Amino acid sequence: MGHTVQSFVETLRADGVEAGRKAAEEICRQAEQRAGQILREAESQAQTILAAAEKQRQETLERTRTDLELAARDTVARLREALNQAVNRVLGQKVAQTLNDEAFLKELIRDVANKYTDSDLVGSPTLDLNVSEPMQRKLAEWVIGTLYKRSEERKLSYELHGTLVSAGFEYKLNDGTIEVTPEAVTQVLSQIVTPPLQELLAANGQADPGQRA
After folding, report:
1. How many domains are contained in the chain?
2. Backbone φ and ψ of 198, nearest 5°
3. Is residue 127 part of a domain?
4. Which of 6, 81, 196, 206 is 20 to 30 A removed from 58 (C-alpha atoms)?
5. 192 DSSP 8-state letter
6. Is residue 73 included in any domain, yes or no?
7. Radius of gyration in angstroms for the set of CA atoms belonging to the chain, rounded to a whole number
8. Residue 160: is its pLDDT beyond 70?
9. What would you measure as the largest C-alpha separation in the chain, in angstroms?
10. How far apart (Å, rounded) are the C-alpha atoms in residues 198 and 200?
């Protein structure tokens, strides 16, 4: 026999060790491949999660910004409306107080009367004046003593009525009726006063793009 039992055993042992080494190397290689694959999958999943989180953050930020802009716009609109109401209320109270002043009303009616008596009137027109009933009692004697006396020279007659429910007066000549009442005067003054306030609110309500996040 070319090989003894001892050499045969040694050969088997050597072959077993080599086979074990190769098996171990294969296991390590496969483990490294699997670990690399798991790492790549984890990195890919992490990137996906981060991208989704960033997208959600941007959407939340944009939605919040839009909500804030809408809230700011609504707030400015309500403030503008409240301011307009306050201005109109203050104007209305002051105008009503002024138009309920007998001396002021006499001066105003006299100016209106002078406007027409100094113009070229055709025929003998009548200037109808309509005031409140209490004011009619206060102005009746003055109209007779002041306006009627001038109307005799200018051929303009007057009629004083006490059916107006508010302060001030209305006057009518021919077919046109002009209101000088708190409502009418306040409306005119409001158109003068409120636009600058509205422009101021609009300017303050505009967000500075450079301050946005």
Report:
1. 1
2. -65, -40
3. yes
4. 206
5. H
6. no
7. 48
8. yes
9. 167
10. 5
Structural domain span for residue 137: 92-201
Q: Is the dihedral of CA 147, 143, 146, 188 positive or negative?
A: negative
Asked whether the beta carbons of 168 and 181 are under 8 A apart, the reply is yes
Closest CA to 65 of 180, 177, 170, 207: 207
pTM of the model: 0.51
Token reading at 198:
């509205």
CATH number of the domain encompassing residue 107 = 3.40.1260
Which two three-digit tokens encode residue 85? 């109401």
User: Could you read off the pLDDT of 69-122 as tens digits, one per residue?
Assistant: 888 777 777 777 777 777 777 777 888 888 888 898 888 888 887 777 666 665
How far apart (Å, rounded) are the C-alpha atoms in residues 192 and 91? 11
Altogether, the residues listed in the chain come to a count of 213
Assess if residue 85 is contained within a domain.
no
Structure tokens at 66: 């839009």
Contact 106, 138 (CB under 8 A): no
8 A C-beta contact, residue 166 and residue 179: no
Is residue 163 included in any domain, yes or no? yes
Three-class DSSP category at 129 = strand
Three-state SS annotation for 29-89: HHHHHHHHHHHHHHHHHHHHHHHHHHHHHHHHHHHHHHHHHHHHHHHHHHHHHHHHHHHHH
Residue-wise pLDDT tens digits, 107-135: 888 888 777 766 666 566 778 889 999 99
